[in-house]
Sequence to fold (199 residues):
Amino acid sequence: MLEALLILLGYVLGSVPTGILVGRACGVDVRKVGSGNIGTANVMRAAGKGAAALTMLGDMLKGIIPVVAARALGEGPWVLAAVALAAVAGHCWPVFLRFRGGKGVATGAGTSIALVPAVGLGMFALWWVVALASRYTSLAAIVVTVVSPFAFWLTGQPLPYVLYTLVGGTAVLWRHRENARALLRGTERKFGGRPGGGG
Fold:
């Protein structure tokens, strides 16, 4: 029963639309700007860097909090992985937005940091390196999503964590399928650019 409640908590927290809440506080509906996505990149286009930073932090906390709570209650790797996956699913398919959410990158980063801080922070650093070097947040997300399972596996993490990165990563890649096509076509917007790109 406790395990089910923790998984539900992960999904509900993941469903909180941070980007929309931050956008509203700034007087803008991020769904009507740029790509219409509720994630950090589009919030930056709609409301600036400060709002984007708050959105990223909030989305990461949606992944960190439920996993940390589950660990504090003594749950093992399988439950922690399930809670992490629920948080990412909540962000991508939030109950509060009729299951039309974001792409799961920041929330996924939060869960990875909560599961294994050293590996999660390493993947977060890799995201920043690729994003700053290429100025494509979508490319950074795709790279990290592909690398993460190997990073968890090669550092000897529990099987449930490796499986989580595979399943959760598949969801994130699916949410980035249009961005991937745009990258291949050379039409993807760089972050900080004008409205219209993915984010």
Summary: The chain has a mean pLDDT of 91. The chain is about 70% helix and 0% strand.
